[in-house]
Design a protein that fits this description.
This protein has 198 residues and is mainly alpha-helical. It has eight helices and two strands; from the N terminus they run ββαααααααα. It has one domain. Strands 1-2 form a two-stranded antiparallel ribbon.
């Protein structure tokens, strides 16, 4: 999973949100930093600037039930995971608690919650907040224009941000299930506070 200690804010968009989408980063800022996702969905937290690697998730075909269960589970999970600092590992007791919350809300286990959450996060990151359309390429183009126009960003930082955005544009994943975009867009306003609360 890719996260950052200090997200770069550019215009009205959160640059880190794009990066999360592009590398199939997890939803909820750091929730899976301690690698609770299944092996094919894991990605360690990136603390320093390291070479980017494309990370893939096993995209889930979302249903309305998934959205409801995710929102309910995430609201209960956040106060628990917020107690973890840095890259601290959850205790066995904490993992048992997280598993129980996921199952109570209709997931088979916490891993399924993770797969659904990662899918939602990936799709959410590519939705235009105004039009509610899934168009990651257009969002990245706008972000590039905003960065180019921002005189407060130093030339060196601007160069790095633009390189990252160009890489993001080249790596934008195609959705395996296009219907996921419609479902997440329809629930955008419900998901936004849950995904951004951390």
């Amino acid at each position: 999973m890719l996260t950052s200690n200090s997200p770069i804010r550019c215009s009205g968009y959160d640059f880190i949100l794009f990066r999360r989408m592009i590398v199939a980063a997890a939803f909820a800022a750091g929730l899976f930093a301690w690698q609770t996702l299944p092996a094919d969905a894991q990605r360690p937290v990136q603390q320093q600037a390291e070479p980017e690697e494309e990370s893939e998730i096993d995209e889930v075909e979302l249903t309305a039930k998934h959205i409801d269960a995710f929102i309910a589970t995430q609201k209960e999970v956040t106060p628990i995971t917020a107690k973890l600092s840095g890259d601290a590992q959850p205790s066995k007791q904490m993992m048992t608690q997280l598993e129980a919350i996921a199952k109570k809300n209709g997931f088979k286990d916490f891993d399924e919650f993770g797969d659904v959450g990662a899918t939602i996060g990936m799709v959410f990151g590519g939705i235009d907040p105004q039009s509610k359309k899934f168009d990651p390429q257009e969002l990245i183009k706008r972000e590039i224009a905003a960065v180019n126009a921002d005189t407060k960003i130093s030339p060196a930082e601007k160069k790095t941000i633009l390189q990252d955005l160009q890489q993001a544009a080249a790596m934008t994943p195609k959705l395996k299930y296009p219907g996921n975009a419609d479902l997440v867009a329809k629930n955008y306003d419900r998901l936004k506070p849950v995904l951004e609360q951390q």
